[in-house]
Amino acid sequence: MQSLINHLNQLQELLLIRDEHRTAGDGRHMDRLNDSIDQLTDRLPQDLKSLYQRLYKKDHIVMAPMHNGCCAICGMRLPISQVQAVRLCKQIQNCPSCARVLYEESDAPVRLGGSSSRTEPRKSGVSRFSAESLMITDLEATTAAGAIEALAKVMEEKGFVSGADKLIQSAMEREAVLSTAMENGLAFPHVRGVEGGGLTLALGISKRGIQWDDSGATVTSHIIFFITIPTAVSAFYLRLMSGLTETFLKEQNREALLAAETPEQLWKALTKATRYAIK
Length: 279
Prior knowledge:
Layout: H1 2-24, H2 30-42, H3 46-58, E1 63-67, E2 70-71, H4 80-88, E3 101-103, E4 135-136, H5 144-157, H6 164-177, E5 186-187, E6 190-192, E7 200-214, E8 217-229, H7 234-247, H8 251-259, H9 263-273
Helix pairs in contact: 1-2, 1-7, 5-6, 8-9
């Protein structure tokens, strides 16, 4: 049964990658993604295929990780007997509330949230899921893997997300499916399925550029957004990615980030550029 759960998770990831490509990509990889999705779907047992397609028509998030005995998507607290059944993984378990297929990933990274004071004013915009401490103004990395490692480690060091090594591994697996590098020197490496809170964003700048492989072609990225995404906020991530892409299509906004010499300056440039695009 675990192999089928892994198969379903792989299928869902491809479907979400296709959604990302539709939102912010150039469309040139759509045929390849569709072919891969069709192949994975056809390999499912007929009853599971029918269940998956039925759930997918309702919402593109079909798989729900179990976190602290709850469905991480709808928040439903599961009966103890079902928690045990999900862990045993002998048969498909559906959430009693949202009907999504439940699974558990014991070594998944967890969002810790970073340090904050109760006396701080309510946060808005990009400050809801990022901070000055997650800004790197001069990435030393020369490869995508090196950039992802630096950004994942700063997330862990600053107390936002646990398990940097797992984040790096998962992000590189995602890159192997389809590069997250885009036009104008932007890249959006990310990891989905980091539970325990909201989305987290770290930003790294490389003035000399980092070589990012894109299906055999080499793309140079200067502005790298590394994002960890709880499964439940995948739809928000698409809006965020669209907002960031639209914002940094403007040369003056990119130049403001590249000109920053300190984390404070980079943070100010990011919050100023995104104040209307990210609510």
